[in-house]
TrEMBL record:
Keywords: Hydrolase. This is Unannotated protein. The keyword Chaperone does not apply. Residues 55-426 form the Amidohydrolase-related domain. It comes from freshwater metagenome. GO terms for molecular function: hydrolase activity, acting on carbon-nitrogen (but not peptide) bonds.
Length: 453
């Protein structure tokens, strides 16, 4: 893509972080940064006019890109998270670096169409199908970084430590592909990846513990200390299923959150993904350590995981970020409203989460959880990400300027995004990606992935 240049954008309405959208907002961009923001001004002749509501870039804080190939193939019939996982393993066992690059590029481009300008890719598909490392140990990690760069979005590659198949169990035939066997091998590989991308524009390397099932306590401690020393964000799947809690308590007499706290994983750079089945003490631990929770409601309901304690997160001030995880859909508006609507089902109370708090989850909090504290806000000095949502579609028409934010959160869809600027570069124009035939690439890459199974 061409390098970003100085540009002025005039937004019909824009969200600058408050409780309402402001009218006639001029946003000036120089390079990849916002240098001026001013509401209530007439559009200068040279400005690019953005109709509807303009938001900061959205952050997808939890993604497994290859899961996009499961959409439509794993949703019907009976079963559970564990039977779905068997289907996911079947796909994971066959992807090679080239197929994965093509699938990830198309998936990240789909995210761009929906206003996502940054993704946290929770990456554990490290090795060849039999567990043998590639000659270049980070071949697939590099393929994911390249895919995001080509799609035009930033990436925090959360390189995931995965050592065992379950608590005290060796990896199974498919899991060997995920496992570095020893935490020292994980550390060496991640350090090489971080060194290789230290100067890469739009790329950051983070760390992840797959789960307390897949990483033993001493190794969790080593991963956490490494992440702290390297100033990396650290993520982990936490208490997605009751069976995980039961196994952890039986093995260690601690919940997963308690175990992670004991092993020094919890701090302000830590994000607990899912956090569906937490105790009150678990929530207090997250609060005490200023940790974030990443909710993935469309995946959690698709896999019958349950509804997380989002009211408790809100009451205790635990930040909520959002992710599309298994990509049953890729729509951050749906993820945002589901936090509130699922809470209504659980509590039978409306209005636990405000429109503003849900927008923060989709933007500022998500970026912060991925190590991008300089993104997720339309403010001077921040990365120039602008996502414009139409307010005249069959879903959004009639709300009016006074209700634009609520219309976006509770009615809009990814398909209503018409213009996306990511780091100063135009990425989506008139609802179309500027350089990728997204539907065509999705079709081709997913067909090719399944042909290998």
């Amino acid at each position: 893509m061409p390098a970003p240049t100085a540009t002025a954008y005039h937004c019909e309405l824009a969200w600058l972080g408050g409780d309402t959208a402001l009218a006639d907002v001029l946003v000036e961009v120089d390079g990849d940064r916002i240098v001026h923001v001013e509401p209530g001004v007439t559009a200068p002749p040279h400005a690019v006019r953005l109709a509807g509501l303009t938001l900061p870039g959205l952050a997808n804080a939890h993604s497994h890109a290859f899961h996009r190939a499961l959409r439509g193939r794993t949703h019907d019939g009976v079963g559970s998270f564990w039977t779905w996982r068997d289907q996911m393993y079947r796909l994971a066992g066959t992807l090679d670096p080239d197929r994965y690059h093509q699938l990830a590029r198309a998936t990240f481009a789909e995210m761009a169409l929906g206003g996502i300008t940054c993704v946290g890719e929770f990456h554990y598909l490290h090795h060849q199908p039999d567990g043998t490392p590639y000659r270049d140990a980070n071949l697939i990690g590099d393929a994911l970084v390249t895919a995001a760069t080509e799609a035009g979005i930033r990436i925090t590659l959360l390189d995931t430590c995965y050592l065992q198949g379950g608590i005290g169990q060796p990896p199974n035939e498919v899991q060997r592909r995920f496992s570095d066997v020893r935490v020292e091998r994980w550390t060496e590989r991640v350090q090489a990846l971080a060194d290789a991308h230290r100067e890469s524009h739009g790329v950051r390397i983070g760390a992840a513990v797959h789960s307390v099932r897949a990483v033993a306590p001493d190794a969790i401690d080593q991963v956490a200390r490494y992440a702290i020393a390297q100033s990396m964000p650290l993520h982990a799947h936490v208490s997605e299923q009751p069976a995980e809690n039961h196994a952890c308590v039986e093995a260690y007499a601690l919940t997963p959150t308690e175990l992670l706290a004991e092993r020094h994983a919890l701090d302000a750079a830590f994000t607990a993904v899912h956090a569906t089945h937490l105790t009150e003490h678990d929530v207090r631990l997250l609060q005490t350590h200023s940790s974030t929770v990443c909710m993935c409601p469309t995946t959690e309901r698709d896999l019958a995981d349950g509804i997380g304690p989002t009211a408790a997160f809100g009451e205790s001030g635990v930040p909520i970020a959002l992710g599309s995880d298994s990509h049953a859909v890729i729509d951050l508006f749906e993820e945002a409203r589901a936090v509130e609507l699922d809470e209504r089902l659980a509590s039978r109370v409306r209005g636990t989460h405000t429109v503003r708090s849900l927008l923060v989850a989709a933007t500022d909090a998500g970026h912060a959880s991925l190590g991008w504290a300089d993104a997720g806000r339309i403010a001077i000095g921040c990365l120039a990400d602008l996502v414009s949502v139409r307010l005249d579609t069959v879903r959004t028409a009639g709300g009016g300027a006074d209700h634009a934010l609520a219309t976006a959160v509770f009615a809009a869809a990814a398909a209503d995004v018409h213009h996306v600027v990511a780091g100063g570069r135009v990425l989506v124009r008139d609802g179309q990606h500027v350089s990728i035939d997204v539907a065509g690439e999705l079709h081709r890459s997913i067909t090719r992935a399944w042909e290998a199974t």
